[in-house]
Structure formats: C-alpha cells, structure tokens
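Bench log, entry 3. Co-assembly request; chain sequences pasted below exactly as received.
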Amino acid sequence: MPSSCDEKIPRIEHHQNNSDVSITICGYWSLNSRERLRLLRRWESLVLQWKDVLRFEIKCDESLVWDSSLVVFLRNANRDLSVNGGQVVFLDLPAGLNKLLNLADEGQKRNKEQKQDPPSDGFLSMEALLKPLDFLGALVISFLNLVRGRSVMRWRDFFASARNCSASALPIVTLISFLTGVTMAFVGSVQLEKFNATIYVADLVSLAMVREMGALMVAIIMAGRTGAAFAAELGNMNLNEEIDSLETFGICSVSFLVLPRTLALFVMTPLLTIYADIVGILGGLLVGTLVMGFSALHYLEQTQSALTDMWEVYSGVSKSLFFGLIIGFVGCYKGVFSGRDSASLGKSVTSAVVISVTLIIIADAFFETAFSLLELR
Amino acid sequence: MNVSGRDDIVIRVESLDLAYGNHLVLKNISFEVRRGDCLVVMGGSGCGKSTLLKSMVGLLAPLRGKIIIDRDELWLNGDKKRKETLKKLGVLFQNGALWSSMTVFENVAMPLEIFTDLGVKEVENLVDYKLALVGLAGAGNFYPSELSGGMRKRAGLARAMAMDPEILFLDEPSAGLDPITSKRLDDLINELKESLGISFVVVTHELASIFDIADDSIFLDSESKEILAHGNPKDLLKENTLTKVRSFLERKTVNNS
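Structure output for the full assembly:
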C-alpha cells in the first residue's frame, strides 16, 4: 500500500473480490479540504457501481488523520451501502472514531421525540374570536370594581402610564400635527386659488384638523408609540413569569396591569387630540400669514367663524376616546397573550401596532358614516 | 405535628390528569404532602414537573382529578374561592419572576399592601424582616435587573413568604446557580422548614439538592406520564430497582433500547 499522508488529501482505496468489497480510508480528512468534496462525488458513483455487492469491509490506514468530516462520511457510507441489502463491517477503526460513531448512533436512537404540530390557532378559530371578548369582559369587570372602590389597581401606575403616554409624547405630537396643518394649508391654497377663495384655507385646515386629522394623527402616534410599548412591556412580563406570579398571589393581572394603562390612554388621547388640533391650526396660520400674506388676525377670525359650531370639535374628541381604548386594549391584549420566546414577543408588538391602526381607521370610518347618517355633519 | 386538630396532610392530589390543549402531559397523578415536610418532584427534563407545579398553584386547570390544599379543593369551587386558597401558598418561580418595574422592597411589600390593612411602618418592618431572613437585608432599593441570579431567587423567596404562607412551591430553585449559592439556598429551605414549619413542594433535578432537602419525593416519567416512584430519595436510592429511577439518582446514563 502506498504511503498516504505525503500529500494532505483524503483518499479511499478499494478492491473488489467477487461479491466482497474492501475499502481502505487513508490520507488527511479535514472539513476544510476541497479534495474531500471531489472525493465525495467520486464516492457517489462508486456506490452506484456496487449495487450488487453483498459485503463491505471498511478499514482505516494507520497514518490516517481525521476530524468530524470522516465521522459523517462513515455514517453516510454505512447508510448508503446498506440500502441495497449489503452488509457493512468496520474493521480496526481508530478508538476515538469508533466511540464517536457509537455515541451518534445512540443519540439517534434515544431521541424518539417527534415534533408535534402545536394545536392550531387558526386566524378565524372560535378561540381567536372568544379570547379577546373574554379579555374585554375582564377589563370591564375590573373597571366596575375600580368604580366600586374594590380594585387592586394602583393609582401611581395609572399616573406613570399617563405621563408616559402624554407628556413624553408632546414633542412628536407637536411636530406631526404642526406639519399636518402646514401641508393641508399648502394643498388647500393651490385648489382655492383657482376660485379666488384663498382665505377659506383657514376653514379647511381648522375643520379638517378638529374633525379628522387631529384625532387620527394622535391615535396613530399613540398606537406606534404607546401601544407597542404596552405590548412589549407586558409581553416581557409574561416571558419572565411576572404575570403568573401576580396570579398566584390572587392579584388580578387585568386590574393590576391592563386597567391603569388602558385608562391612561382613555384619558390622555382626547387631551392630546385637543392639543394637536390647536397646533395643526397654528401650522395653517403660519402658511396663511407667511406664504399667502393674510394678517394673523384675519386668519384667526376666519378660523373662529368656521368653528362656531363646537360639535365639530367635540366629534373629533369623542372619537379619540374610543381610539385610546382601542390602542390600550389591543396593546395590552397582545402583550399578555404573547408567546414565551423573544420571537413571538416581536410578533406581538408588530401585530399590536398593525391591529390598532387598522381598528382605528375602521372605527373612524364607522363614526363618520354614523355621524352623516344621523345628520350630525 | 397535629396542632389544634388540623389535618396532618396539607396537600392531597387525587388522580390528576394534566394537558396542554390536546397534548396529555401527566396522567393519574396521586400523592400527599404532610404538614412541615418537603416534597421534591423530580424527573428528567420535559416530564411535566413544572406543569404539575403550575396546576398546583392555580395557573393551569387540570383535565381531571382534584388538588386539595388544606381541605380546600383548588379547581372545583370557582375563581373567588381559588384566590382565597391561593393565599395559603407562596410560589418561587424559576428566575424569581420579580416585578421588574418595582424595587425588591416594593416587590415584597406589594402583597402586604394589597391584602392587609397594615400601616406603612409595619409593612416596612415586615419587609425588612423577610429580606433579612433570606440574607438580603439592605438590598431593598435595588431593582431586579441590578441583582445577581442568586439574589433574585432569594428576593423571590422573600416575596413568596410575604403573606406568611403555609406552603411554599419552588420551581427549580437551584437551577443556574453555582454550587455554593445553591447549597446556601438549600440550607435556607431547611431552616425555614424547621423554624417556621412551612411545607415545601420543590421541583428540581439537582441531585445534591434533592438529597439535602427532601423528606419525600415523587419521580415523574415522561414516557408513561405517571409517577414512577414515590418515597424518600435516600430510600429510593437504596431500595428502588427501576433502572430509570436508579440511573437518575446515581447519575448514570442508561441505554433504554
């Protein structure tokens, strides 16, 4: 037999005697070797040639150098060669190699556990419909308990949430509603110029802000900012078994965690909406005075005459009450029922935002339709 | 000990079946815990130890069977009664499960504030005492994220003891702790058991802990989903002839082909 370790390449030598094949593994077997891949391709064609062979003897050359690549090769060789009924015998394998092969075989046998599909949580399964209703019921009951003065809700949690979702959100609400006012004024001025009625920009901006844009913009900011934060916070608490530990103390997690957060949004979203309305109108004022050349007084008087009916303002604010509830409810629901791993936490946060925004738009359309059918517009 | 005519058995579990959805985890589980004893629930990973614990602390409704804690059935009497029963027990979760938005002090104080009419000063004294019991005196102002794993567990234990429960459930108390910290926790369990007469149910697969703290034990098996052995682990080591139990207690690998 020629010396096999002169070059650092893996080699296989084989002799066929009638129905027996003897295979000698020699050379340098390394995961990084390119030669090995070439060898494996040749090996595949050899296996095909040996379809009718009954017995294979595999042995190793003494100067063999090997790593995991050889263990994997031998496991696969054993499988491939015995597919057609051939008998595979390993002769004089190095002791370490033998042990590794046995260990892997045992591990294969021991792990009988098969992955089972989790119980289906279909998009429209009965549970998917009933669970939110159940949660909503629990929230209503815990609110009633709060009214009756029998809730475990801590008011400092409410105030902390209220501060987080209002005062800390002022900069972003200011920026976005101001720019919304500016944009609407520009868009409106182009159209109104055609009719020589540019002063009605004040009406357009103020009515659009108080009826629609103020409430909608604030709700979308809240959904992305606070709803996502609630989902992440509660989801993480669920992950750490913190919600379980509340339950084992007999503390209602809905009253303790969900109620203060939802209530905070319920109270704060309308306030932010009023603020956004004002800032939006100021945005319009800026365009009206600096670009279109109206005096500030003129513009504001025109705004005032557009808003003589305060219902315009109230309708927007009343919508935002519901938007706040939707965001709080969806964020907390997604957090409390998020799975117990970080991937599903991410999914929960994403879907909290997506579902809140969708529900907000649906609710908005519903309100506008209702207002118009009831002739409130 | 049978003081003031109370039952000697503090927990009785009768032919309990537990499942997640359609997936049966444990079946026909029956055992008892004597007052002031420490029962260890052991078994390999994934055999349903934590599931059993979840059901006993009111987090997972059983498919069938009863769990009686100090004469009260846990699952048949509705939510309100269950919450009352739960007040008799304290739970230490695997990683402490401290409420992360509160300091250690607030964690221990919260159940007292919610369920008792104690004044601020009294609550403060009680919390200081519980923290001192677990060796965390002076650590009250830390947030959970500022504590080491061992400290978190001890803080969790202090919180579990906040309401002076008669029974403490511990889920893998020594998992992830170094041998010295884990030994200290075991000593603490033994001391609490002796000095306060608290009964313990401990889920663990740490052999050293098992021999240290257990008065009684049950061995759950993931294949049959039943109790494979029941008794003091030291006796089991001497007398039990089942390969699975022996190899677990002797820490040997088995060929279960």
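The radius of gyration of chain A is 36 Å. The first strand of chain A starts at residue 10 and ends at 17.
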